[in-house]
Specification:
Number of helices: 11
CATH topology of the largest domain: Phosphoribosyl-aminoimidazole Synthetase, Chain A, domain 2
Distance between the termini: 40 Å
Mean pLDDT: 93
CATH architecture of the largest domain: Alpha-Beta Complex
Strand content: 15-25%
Largest sheet: 7 strands, mixed
Helix content: 25-40%
Bound molecules: adenosine-5'-diphosphate, magnesium ion
Strand order of the largest sheet: 8-10-7-11-9-12-13
Shape: globular
Length: about 350
């Protein structure tokens, strides 16, 4: 984002490590009774009545994010979402996170305050205790590692491995938007480099940019499924694109799958932006990534409970492993979905 030359820049070395930790963590308060001790001792203490799920993600500047167009507050928020999404994908409720950062001294304190403002906002909205972390320096750039702890009753846990032949394949929300949002931001960043005075009007892209910069983890989906009295047979979150996630589910469940191109839920902005960028919207939906939707399978017996629900779409069904993993295109061509991606479709595609 465009740096405001008037904002204060306090050097990290002025505070020292402990001053920095105190400054960044002073506003975190403990909300959950399961958090017996949060920040401030050698380790946090948590108490679980049920099973505990644990997940970690590491985000590296230049690999996972580019600070040229990602505001630090959004980055903080998104790094929490990435972890919460994994917890929801286990059908669990996240309760605590730890946040570890490595930061070079090119960052002023104000930058880290922005990062933590995003983390704090996410923790507040999603009702999470920040219970610890670590702070260290890096030679170059920023690294953020977050670990999330979630609680779930043993009988409610949903693994990737439970999909059965004939199960329905279901997706929350819509996909492809986050990747396209990134394309728009990268394009505008190139324009900005050439002409820093340019004031782009991005309002037509607001949905896809928001999906890239400020994703929301689907905490409503485990709640909805519970209300509908549906327990998915398998579940995964869509962080890397639909094709790679469906392949993960199938591999772990030892099944195959059929997905219908016409069923893949796309926002109208995704369709119009794909036209503008001369991209195929199905390719983007399958390979884009960072959507943080939930992909799950349910028994055919549950069809009447989930049909016609606006939050979820049935996009296909599970078949036997030997039948493989395929997409049925709008032109009714059967195309193998492979880990290598999607090129085969473009060669075979009829329309
Ligand atoms: P130690 O030397 O025992 O690792 P630290 O001085 O690094 O302890 O951390 C002091 C307290 O602050 C601990 O509770 C730790 O979990 C917490 N903490 C350190 N860095 C962060 C951070 N970046 N975000 C949140 N909590 C942090
Ligand atoms: Mg430490």
């Amino acid at each position: 984002m465009i740096e405001d030359k008037n904002t204060a820049r306090t050097s990290l070395s002025d505070l020292g490590e402990f001053g920095l930790i105190d400054h960044l963590t002073k506003d975190f308060e403990v909300k959950h009774t399961s958090t017996l001790k949060g920040i401030g001792d050698d380790a946090a203490v948590v108490h679980f009545d049920n099973e505990c799920v644990v997940t970690t993600d590491l985000l590296v500047e230049g690999v996972h994010f580019d600070l040229a167009y990602v505001p630090l507050k959004h980055l903080g928020y998104k790094s929490v979402m990435v972890n919460l999404s994994d917890v929801y994908a286990m059908n669990a409720t996240p309760k605590q996170i730890t946040v570890s950062i490595a930061v070079s001294n090119r960052f002023p304190l104000e930058a880290l305050e922005d990062l933590y403002a995003g983390i704090r906002a996410a923790a507040k909205i999603y009702n999470i205790d920040v219970i610890g972390g670590d702070t260290t320096s890096s030679q170059k750039g920023l690294l953020i590692s977050i670990t999330a702890l979630g609680h779930v009753k043993k009988e409610d846990i949903v693994y990737r491995s439970g999909a059965k032949d004939n199960d329905l394949i279901v997706l929350s929300g819509d996909i492809g938007a986050a990747y396209l949002g990134l394309q728009v931001l990268e394009r505008e960043n190139q324009v900005f480099k050439v002409n820093p005075q340019s004031q782009p009007d991005l309002s037509t892209y607001s949905y896809i940019i928001e999906r890239q910069l400020k994703p929301e983890a689907r905490r409503d989906i485990p709640v909805l499924l519970k209300k509908l009295e549906v327990k998915p047979t398998s579940m995964i979150d869509v962080s890397d694109g639909l094709s790679s996630e469906i392949l993960h589910l199938c591999k772990h469940s030892k099944v195959g799958a059929t997905i219908y191109e016409e069923k893949i839920p796309l926002d109208p902005t995704v369709i119009s932006t794909c036209e503008e960028f001369n991209m195929d919207s199905t390719t983007i939906a399958l390979n884009g990534g960072e959507d943080y939707e939930l992909l799950f399978t349910v028994s055919q017996d549950d069809y009447s409970k989930i049909k016609a629900n606006p939050s979820i779409t049935i996009i296909g069904h599970i078949n036997q492993e030997k039948e493989g993993v395929h997409l049925i295109t709008r032109g009714n061509t059967k195309v193998a979905i492979t880990a290598q991606g999607w090129n085969s479709l473009n060669e075979n595609k009829e329309n």
